[in-house]
Structures are given as structure tokens and as C-alpha cells.
Amino acid sequence: MYTPTEIDNSSFRNLLHSTIAQIDSFYGTFKDKYETNDKGKLNFLTSYTNGSSAFRKDILDDSKYILQSLKRSPPRNLEELKGFFEATIGKLQSKCLKNGFHESSLLNLLKEICSNLESINSNELKENTSISFGK
After folding, report:
1. Which of 27, 32, 80, 121 has the most other CB atoms within 10 Å of its CB?
2. Count of Cβ atoms closer than 10 Å to residue 107 Cβ
3. CA-to-CA dists, residue 97 to 101, 102, 105, 113, angstroms
């Protein structure tokens, strides 16, 4: 039976720091764009925007809440980090469906982050399997 091997603490801290920095950058850029409506600030957000939902206040509030949650009580390992994002994505998807919104720019960003976390787990499984079978 496969038991996931955690990435070492240093690598996890770097991953967590990078993830928080990514959301912090999104929040800062989104906040500035939301408050000033400055067209020059769109570059970072362009790949995450979807239709008319691009600059809603709830996205700003949600990203601030996620950022504060990660900073206040950071996950201790990769599984907790993945669980946090999976739960958050579920809540945001429900919110979008309930309110009839398109998927938000924040939701797209979180899905990308979660996908990256999945690929880390997938690579660990391949490495552990190769080690187990002497490949």
C-alpha cells in the first residue's frame, strides 16, 4: 500500500511561502485594480478573469480571507494544504453556482494552485515507486 511521503520541511515551507506570495500578489493587484480601475494593472489578472465576474467585491473579500487564513494558521504539511484548497474551491464553486456567477478569477487561480499541488503528489508517487522497485 502506498503511503504518501511528505516533502521535507524546508521544501514545504518554500512551497507554502510561494503559494501565499502568489495569493498575496493576486490580492494586491486585484485590490488596486478594484479601487482604481487602472487599465495598466490588468496584466497579472488577465489569465484568471472570466467574463463580467472579473472585478467583483466578493472576490476581493474572499482572497483577503484566504490569505489571512493561510497566514494565521498555516497548514503543517502538503496534505493539509491540499485539503485547505480543495475545501476552499468547493465553497467558492458553490457560491458561484448559488449566485449565478461565472467562475471567478480567484477560483481559477486556486484551481491552478491545487493542480500544481496534485502534480507534486504525483511526482512523489513516481519517485517512491521507482525507489521501491529499484528503478
Report:
1. 27
2. 23
3. 6, 8, 15, 21
Q: How far is CA 61 from CA 4, 12, 32, 122, in A?
A: 34, 27, 13, 32
Q: Amino acid letter at 115?
A: S
pTM for this prediction: 0.71
CB 54 within 8 A of CB 105: yes
Rounded distance between C-alpha atoms, residue 77 and residue 74, angstroms: 9
Q: Which cell numbers hold the place of 17?
A: 511561502
Nearest partner of 58 among 20, 102, 25, 19, judged by Cα:
102
Q: Tell me the Cα Rg of the chain.
A: 17
